[in-house]
Design a protein that fits this description.
Elements: H1 2-16, H2 20-38, H3 50-55, E1 58-61, E2 66-69, E3 73-79, E4 91-96, E5 99-107, E6 110-116, E7 123-133, E8 136-143, H4 154-167, H5 174-186, H6 189-207
Parallel strand pairs: 1-6
Antiparallel strand pairs: 2-3, 3-8, 4-5, 5-6, 7-8
Helix pairs in contact: 1-2, 2-6
């Protein structure tokens, strides 16, 4: 999770970087993070609890999903291969005004769960439902008010506001500088050489009057 957050931050900074050397450094770090994430070992299967035994097989927590919205609904898309072959009663969704949880039982010998708490805005329990499609479960949350949701949950909203505040500094290069310092401190020899080279060349240009910013 931490590597993924670092990657997202580097991508965000890439959209703001204008100097070629800074972008080169950020691209190097982006490729490095993507490689680390790709090479991570798969998580170890957790111990089977009594509840899981009663359901039969392992219970897997679903983390990947997509979402969209219309004026009336927030739609959450969960990919599950072969889910359309299950009996309808094996796919259960329980709604409250600010949450829902999904349970898919006995899909290829496993059970799958997903829980969303603290939804961004209230939903109508009676108007919400789920649909089973080919290799996908679609959860339809009926909005109580027909208004746009900026995020799916309150936690996502707070996280975005926190990230926005960290970039909102009086010095627009401060966010980049902080990342470069972090990359230098934690990076390998290749990263350090790249950053050093960019810094030395930028200093030389500054002394020549080419650029005003000290990076």
């Amino acid at each position: 999770k931490q590597l993924q957050k670092d990657l997202e931050e580097v991508k965000e900074l890439l959209t703001k970087a204008t100097r070629k050397r800074v972008r080169d450094v950020l691209m190097t770090e982006k490729h490095k993070l993507e490689l680390e994430i790709k090479n991570q070992p798969p998580p170890k299967p957790k111990d089977v609890t009594e509840e899981e035994k009663s359901l039969g097989g392992y219970t897997v927590k679903i983390n990947n999903y997509g979402w969209d919205q219309s004026d009336k609904f927030v739609k959450i898309y969960i990919s599950l291969n072969g889910v359309q072959k299950l009996p309808s009663e094996n796919v259960q969704v329980n709604f409250t005004e600010r949450s829902f949880d999904l349970l898919v039982k006995n899909l290829n010998g496993k059970n799958y769960t997903m829980t969303f708490n603290n939804l961004m805005k209230p939903i109508s329990v009676e108007g919400s439902s789920r649909k089973i499609k080919t290799d996908m479960v679609l959860v339809m949350c009926r909005k109580k008010r027909e208004e746009k949701w900026d995020c799916l949950t309150q936690v996502e909203k707070e996280s975005k506001e926190k990230e926005k505040a960290s970039y909102d500094t009086s010095d627009p290069s401060e966010g980049l500088m902080n990342l470069l310092k972090k990359m230098y401190a934690e990076g390998d020899d290749e990263i350090k050489r790249t950053i050093n080279k960019a810094w030395v060349e930028s200093r030389e240009k500054q002394f020549k009057g080419d650029i005003p910013m000290d990076i």
